[in-house]
Amino acid sequence: TFYRDFFGSTAGFANTSTSYNSANSNLPVFQFKDGLPYAATEPLGAKLGPSFLLSQGVNWDQGSEKVPMSQQWTLSLQRQLPGRWMFDASYSANKATHLAASPYDYNQLDPKNNSLGLALQDQVPNPYAGVVSGALGGATISRSQSLKPFPYYTSVNARLPHAGNSIYHALLVSAEKRLSNGFALLASYTFGKLISDSAVVPMNFGAVEVGSDNGYQNGKYNRRAERSVDPTDVANRLVISGIYELPFGKGKRYAQSGFAAAVIGGWQLNVIGTLQGGLPLTVRGANNNLANRPNSTGISAKLNNPTPQRWFDTAQFLNPPSFTFGNVGRTLPDVRSPGVVNFDLSAIKDTTLFENLRFQIRAEMFNFVNHTNYGNPGVSFSPGAAGTNVSATFGTITSARDPRIIQFGARLMF
């Protein structure tokens, strides 16, 4: 799936609108054959001068970006067996480079200066005093601002840099029983792994199904550290679907006519089952004047027997020392959210009333086995005075997807 993104509005170079109003609401403003009554308002752009956005945050679209590229390869083996069975096994891969990635601040303070600690907040003489207009033109500015590459801007937002990369490998196995004697079955299993480094996630179908985490912790100086299992990665997914037409009624093996055919004939059972693994977790919430990711103790937070009350070991996360980046990755490598086990069942009966008129009744059950599918655990780390977590919701699950839902319906088809 490729992602399309439109560059947003840039101050001074944005779209403008020009209104042409008629003196009389019953008359047209003008006719195109006569041309515009007066020139349209155009963006001022460079006419605003080089000092237009001083002391503000600016956007920067990097030039000479490389074109995104996707390389794909597939190897497939198919085998047809007696009984209208078909088996398919495939290996598929996709390597993508130069993808649109998360923005980052090109005016970021060099991490080597973080050793100054709280001294970064001190006010120091401003070398641009009286030269720069706005808030950054005063007699003093913070030391951290003075050490930035462009101290006369609060930030330089590099928008959609083509710095994203991803690699995906998957084994896909399917078995299909083609319709015969009223029975058909399709089972598909996918075992795969997606690794990326903060490429922009193209779509989101809800927190339970698809994860998302964009943004760099150290965007200008260490984007490589974002490489991890992608937040959308589903390692295992099995989908089974089947149809069975009961052998009763006209044209079937049993009860081909009469009252029995009218009552028990024309029934069809349908089932769709999904068994899916969970998504990688993203832990955030450091509080140290710099980072948003905590440190790991070096011990995996994975539990052998997780429960909703304790889905992972929260004791393995610590607040990083002040003015340092946390070493927890973009996603946890071995801790995932709960998976999904869901089976939907429907029973449908078609009855022919006349040649072009049919009556259908149906009963549908979603999650008919009533399996409890838990929601995502809390992933917001909240450090206390000792640097350990003090949040009661961190690592706990407080929600679940829908239980069994049953609905009935009837309709006439003509």
Offer a few descriptive terms.
414 residues; mainly beta; 10-stranded antiparallel sheet; 2 helices; extended
Descriptive account of the structure:
- This protein has 414 residues and is mostly beta strands.
- Helices cover 3% and strands 33% of the residues.
- The chain is built from two helices and 17 strands.
- The protein has helices at residues 143-146, 258-264; strands at 57-60, 69-81, 85-99, 104-105, 123-125, 140-142, 155-158, 164-180, 183-196, 228-229, 236-245, 267-276, 295-296, 317-318, 340-354, 357-366, 405-413.
- Strands 2, 3, 8, 9, 10, 11, 12, 15, 16 and 17 form a ten-stranded antiparallel β-sheet that branches. A three-stranded mixed β-sheet has the order 1-7-4, with no helix packed on it.
- A hairpin with a 2-residue loop joins β15 (340-354) and β16.
- It is extended.
- The chain starts with 56 loop residues before the first strand and ends with a strand.
